[in-house]
Amino acid sequence: MDLQDRYDELDNIESKLRTLIDETSDISYIEPLRELMYQAQNEKSEVGERLQKQYDREEAEQERLYWREAI
Q: Of 37, 44, 50, 57, which shows the fewest CB atoms inside 10 Å?
């Protein structure tokens, strides 16, 4: 699984957990669901940072290739 797929999966998990939390009235379920959601948010943040670095490297490489061709 690449970083983008993992990021998308975590975003989906977060969204579905948020919906479950909003639709649940039983407090004994809400807190564990929130913990899972926070876990997914934290991992998504970490994956997002790695993904941004990957995109930055790819963009820099494309720019180098462009200037190499232009000269």
A: 57
